Hints:
The protein is built from two helices and two strands, in the order ααββ. It is mainly alpha-helical. Strands 1-2 form a two-stranded antiparallel sheet. A hairpin with a 5-residue loop joins strand 1 (about 70) and strand 2. The radius of gyration is 34 Å and the shape is elongated.
Amino acid sequence: MTIILYLLAISLCVAACGLGFFLWSLRSGQYDDLDGAANRILYDDEIAVAAPVRPPLEAASVRPGPDAPERRVRDGTATRV
């Protein structure tokens, strides 16, 4: 029976804390502009400038030289990296 009194006291404390946080948010202006953030996301303030795109490297320009180390593949043959 005493556990009910403890739970009642704890629940009243939690409810009082929740009410306190709600009143604090009202006083600090958290609910003043509800539509501003929803509308602000729809409009761009600045025009984004795209970075220049570099062309991809040619496959022939990245061929390994004669001193490149050999790499073994599954079938046992050696290839240069």
